[in-house]
Structure formats: structure tokens, C-alpha cells
Amino acid sequence: MTIAPLRREDVPRCVEIEHELFPGDDPWSATSFLSEMAMGNHYLGAYLADGTLIGYGGLAVTGRDPDFEASVHTLAVDLGYQHSGIGKRLLRALLERADEVHAPVFLEVRTDNVPAISLYVAHGFEKIGLRRRYYMPSGADAYTMARPAVVRENP
């Protein structure tokens, strides 16, 4: 399995995974993915040796030096490949990008998604807020989580 930039031709597969994972909410559309990619946000795919997409993640970095901020927009792994470290590898690759610009990282996660919350906590995130009825149409709540910026080392 390799992590590489997400390809436009993989967007239909992303939409399939979205519908598998988030049937009670509003899964991302192809237009959403393409728009995020067109804006230059950092989107990665997890690919099997044969090129099959089995997961993806996206990070937006905003602001300018020295005040960058990053936000994980999405992180998903095909149901058949969950709990095998793919989400961890995708998250670490996204965080590497945020670390390059010393940006704090924010995200939202469903309050009932214990595996994802555990993954984020293991990577330095803390709960900083609660967004009631954040996910629609289910009305599920979300935690806002944050990870501090990597401290710049003085030369």
C-alpha cells in the first residue's frame, strides 16, 4: 500500500467510499472533492499495488507565514481495510504537511466515532469544543479537536 497525491480519476471511488461510510449523513459529492482539489488543498490517496484506491484524506492550509492554520477536511478508509493502519498512515502524511508550515491542526469528528477519536488523541489532538447537530441530516454531534503547531527550532 502506498500513499500518493489523490488523482482526479479516483474521485468516483471516493464518492463510493463516502456513501459506504456515511449513509445517514450528507456524503461528499464528486463536485466537493474536485473543488477541494482545484483549490490546491492537500489530498492524498491510499493505493493498493494494483492502483485501487482504498482510502483518502484531505488537509487545507490557510493563512500566511507565520500564522498558518490547517484543517483536516476528510479522512476515510474503505470498510474492508479499516483497522489495518491505513487511516494512521494517511493522518500522519497530512500532519507532515501541516508540520512543514508549523500550523496548528483542527478537525471535527462525530462524538460516537470512538476509533477515530482514539486515532486523533494518539496523534496529539485534544477536544476543544462540541458542535451540536453538526452532521446533517442525522443531526449527530461533533467534537472539534485541535493539535498545536510544531514548535520551530531556533537555528
From TrEMBL:
Function recorded in the entry: Acetylates the N-terminal alanine of ribosomal protein bS18.
Family that this chain belongs to: Belongs to the acetyltransferase family. RimI subfamily.
A family per Pfam: Acetyltransf_1
InterPro entries in the record: AcTrfase_RimI/Ard1, Acyl_CoA_acyltransferase, GNAT_dom, MshD_Acetyltransferase
Gene3D superfamilies to which the protein is assigned, alphabetical: 3.40.630.30
Protein name, per record: [Ribosomal protein bS18]-alanine N-acetyltransferase
Enzyme Commission (EC) number: 2.3.1.266
Location within or outside the cell: Cytoplasm
One GO MF term: protein-N-terminal-alanine acetyltransferase activity
Catalyzed reactions per annotation: N-terminal L-alanyl-[ribosomal protein bS18] + acetyl-CoA = N-terminal N(alpha)-acetyl-L-alanyl-[ribosomal protein bS18] + CoA + H(+)
Alphabetical keyword list: Acyltransferase, Cytoplasm, Ribonucleoprotein, Ribosomal protein, Transferase
CDD domains: NAT_SF
Parts forming coiled coils: none
Gene Ontology cellular component list: cytoplasm; ribosome
NCBIfam families noted in UniProt: rimI (TIGR01575)
Annotated ranges, domain N-acetyltransferase: 1-150
SUPFAM superfamilies linked to this entry: Acyl-CoA N-acyltransferases (Nat)
